[in-house]
Structures are given as structure tokens and as C-alpha cells.
Amino acid sequence: MKYLSYLTIGIFFGIIMYKSEAASWFRIYEMFQFGSFHMYGIIGSALVLGVIGIQLIKKFNIKAIGGTEMNLQPKEKGVTNYLIGGIIFGLGWALAGACPGPMYVLAGAGYYAILVVIGGALLGTFVYGLVKNKLPH
Amino acid sequence: MNLLYDPWPWYVAGPLIALTMFILLFVGKKFGMSSNLSTVCSIGGAGKYSDFFKFDWKADRWNLVVVLGAVIGGFIASKYMSYNTVKINPDIAQQLSTDYGIESAGQAYLPPELFASQQLTDPFVLAVLIIGGFLVGFGARYAGGCTSGHAISGLSNLQLPSLIAVIGFFIGGLVMIHLLFPLIFS
């Protein structure tokens, strides 16, 4: 039952990503060319509602199902890993035209070349795990 | 005008993404789409090579179910709810065609020049896709999250680390499109 709700959330998210065109290589390219407000509007409007909602959750101490605390732990402090890791991510986001969520959506949509991108992402994650201790954080 | 097939504007998509995040918070989880890559590495036995992957992946199975849902959502949307064409700014489409020979803006969802299956026999295209994916996977873990984890969840929670990561995402993306694309694709 629990897993059915996660599956439904995933389906919902997949449809949003595809229908909003946020999963399209063209939209990512256009965003980095500042050619349209579309992607900024998606991220921006999600963010405005997100900030308001999370402030309300904190103010009224709203709990998750079962009365547990919402999963809102603060991020660990730091600059180097967030900045360098972020830049590396951005290089890949623009080159492949896809970030992790849309990759799976595109696989479902039948663009099988994206499986190569997902394979690359798994390899990148694995290599990060190998060299993690040698990197500045 | 076709309500089922037309793409959704930003002011529909953005609020629905925020709703997705709130539903996940409400069921006691969080919204982030890159940690499942670590989970898969862990399931595949990567813990033998690095302690980074030694965690109880069974507790993260829900994450993989969300991924499976996203795959199904992509199938449903592309097959029953879309023309599978993306119209972008005509100036950008023209520039893509002139500079890089990518002619398919407005006619496809992804450029077949890069994503048609038969293109995978081209070592250049294969390298672009593998390296692109590698950078996404490596960078997301190094930065502790991706677009959903930092740009939506983290920024919504007013986390400074997420702001730094998102600034990084855009530095990387702009460098790639404006400085590296002309070198890679011309």
C-alpha cells in the first residue's frame, strides 16, 4: 500500500516533467541561452510556493503522516563541495540536456539513448564514492 | 487547442512540482531524484569498493519505486498526452540549426541528432551522452543533490548550501553552452 503511493507520486511527477517539457533537451538549451522564461517560471513558481509551504509547516509545526516530524533536516555547512560539485553537475546537465529526474521519464517515453546517460550517471556516482576522501569538501 | 495534448505552461507545472514535494514530505520522505543512483550502486555491490555505498539500501527502496513511477509517467505522457514536439524560441531554434546543424527544434521532443538510437553507433555521440551522464552523477553526489534536491527542496527550505549548489549548476551550464558547445559541436 505504501509502495503504491510512492509509485503514484512517481507517475504524477513523470507526467509533470514530460508535459511541462522540462525533460526536453531543447528547453534546457534554451534556458541556458536565456531564450525563454519557461524553465525559470517552472523553477521560480515551484520555489515561491515551496518557500511559503515550508514556512507554514514550520510555523504551525505540521507533522507528516503518523505524527512524525517532516523530513526537513538542515544541509551540512560548506562551500567547496556545493560549488565545485554544482559546477560539475551543471556541465553535465547542459551537455546531456537532462538532470536525474527527467532521465527516467525519458527512458519511459522510449528514448532509449538516455539509458547511456543513466549508465554514465551511475558510473559518475560510483567514481565519486571511490575518490570522495581525496576531494576537498 | 487541445487540452490533453498541449504542453503545460510554467504556471501549471511549477505549482505541481511544489505539490509533489509536499506530498513526499507529508508521507515522511523528501523530494530528490539523484540519491537513487547511490542506492543502485549500493545494491550492485559498490560497498565492496567504498564505504560511501555501505548503507542500508533497503530503507531507500521507496526511492526506486518513485523512479519506477517516473518511468511509467514518461510512458503515459509521451504515448497518450503529447505531440512529442517542443517549440522553443524561434531565434534559438534558428541558432541551433545554423551553428550546430540541429534542425529538429519544433519537430521532436529530443534532438534525434543526439538521441536517436542509431546515433549510438557514432563514437562522438556516445561520448557526449556518457560524459554528460558521468558529470551529472559525479556532480550531484559531490554537491549532495541535484535540481530537485537543491533547486527545489533545499532552496524552499532556505538552505544556503543549496543556493551555492544552484549557483554552481548555472555556472556549469552556462560554461558548457556558451564556451564548450562551440568547441565540442562545431
From TrEMBL, chain A:
Where does the chain cross the membrane? 38-57, 78-98, 110-131
Name of the protein described by the UniProt record = Transporter
The source's superkingdom equals Bacteria
For this UniProt record, give its keywords in alphabetical order, as a comma-separated list. Answer: Membrane, Transmembrane, Transmembrane helix
UniProtKB/TrEMBL annotation, chain B:
Q: Does Transit peptide show up as a keyword for this record?
A: no
Task: Kindly list the organism's lineage.
Answer: Bacteria, Pseudomonadati, Bacteroidota, Flavobacteriia, Flavobacteriales
State what protein this is by name: YeeE/YedE family protein
**Could you tell me the membrane topology recorded for this protein?**
Multi-pass membrane protein
* Source organism: Maribacter hydrothermalis
* Coiled coil regions in record: none
Q: Which residues span the membrane?
A: 12-28, 62-81, 124-143, 163-185
User: Has the keyword Magnesium been applied to this entry?
Assistant: no
Q: What is one term from the GO cellular component aspect held by the record?
A: plasma membrane
Q: Where found, per UniProt?
A: Cell inner membrane
Q: Give the Pfam families listed for this entry.
A: Sulf_transp (PF04143)
Q: Which UniProt keywords apply?
A: Cell inner membrane, Cell membrane, Membrane, Transmembrane, Transmembrane helix, Transport
InterPro entries found in the cross-reference section: Sulf_transp_TsuA/YedE (IPR007272)
Q: What domain of life? A: Bacteria
Write out the similarity annotation: Belongs to the TsuA/YedE (TC 9.B.102) family.
